Please model this.
Amino acid sequence: MASPTQVLLLPGWQNSGPDHWQSRWEQLYGYERVQQHDWMKPLRGDWITRLEEVLLGQSRPCILVAHSLGCLLVAAWAVCSRHTARVQGALLVAPGDAARTELRPMLQSWAPVVMKPLPFPSVLVGSHNDPYCRLERARAFAAAWGSQWNDAGHAGHTNAQSELGDWPEGHALLQALSVQKGNTPW
Model:
């Protein structure tokens, strides 16, 4: 029996490689990766448009699973889309901070970061030693977006280098988010 929701994976800048937990989830659970037209030169407007296209093509409500720049995509998309009701929740992992001096040249169109509440439930997973986002900034994102905060400890950027494997703890958060909205866990 098919799940009542579709899980959409939103990788960050440069995509998620084969050892990243998002890629593993895609293989293990059949979740759909939102493919961007240009992973190396991400333009906020292009990425928002692509997410909107994919969401409009879904026949079921969706849960978004974002990593790094994908988290900023969710926030930016939510303030301009008229179709946010299609999303039942979001798991936001290791948001990148486009306002950081060293990231600005690569992520020019992403600053300032949207700091408005999301119109659906969300959980934000942040790390104490993420090289792309200070802990205080990740907590500020969670507060601004109305996301439940989940402390990942010292997990780095919560990516392949963090050696999380299939990251069952993250999948449990996704399942809990699904149950929170009254869906059947998959």
User: Anything to note?
Assistant: Helices lie at 21-29, 44-56, 69-80, 135-145, 168-180.
